Amino acid sequence: CNDSREDKQAVLESAYANIPVVAFADTDSPLKYVDVAVPGNNKGIQSIGLLYWLLAREVLRIRGELSRTEEWDVMPDMFFAIDAAEIEKIEAAREQEAKAEAEVPVAAEAAEWVAAEDDWQAEAAEGESGQW
To answer: Which terminus of the chain has a smaller tally of CB atoms within 10 A, N or C?
Structure first.
């Protein structure tokens, strides 16, 4: 659990059922009925994400799926919580960028066609004046 104070009911019920409790504990967190306390800042979003990243990495190392010498290619920001409104903003920005990128080549091709047409008209005008 993130905070044993906020998750008091879940910690208490786990103790009644003999389920071990692992908690991220700040300096002021109560540790009654907590079996393993992982020290860390459990108030900030980025801090909690980093703590979960560290916990997941250590679980993989204990299982033997990840050695201590190799780096883990999963970034810690994958463990940060993002609200739905922020996700929608990010997706809208990506769609606008994709539209802008799709329009740029069309405009560039159109400019090339206009330039080629101007060159052709200039050559045709020179040809009409008798300068072949």
So the answer is: C
Do 52 and 36 meet the contact criterion of CB atoms below 8 Å apart? no
The answer to whether 26 touches 1, Cβ cutoff 8 Å, is no
Looking at 1-132, which runs of residues are DSSP E strands? 22-25, 36-39
Q: Given this model, what pLDDT does residue 62 score?
A: 92
Other beta carbons less than 10 A from residue 21's beta carbon: 19
Give the pair of three-digit tokens for residue 63: 């299982």
Give how far Cα 112 sits from Cα of 99, 104, 122, Å.
21, 12, 15
Each residue of 82-118: b (16+ CB within 10 Å) or e? Answer: eeeeeeeeeeeeeeeeeeeeeeeeeeeeeeeeeeeee
Closest C-alpha to 55, from 28, 24, 78: 24
Spatial distance between the Cα atoms of 39 and 28, rounded to a whole number of angstroms: 11
More confident residue, 72 or 123: 72
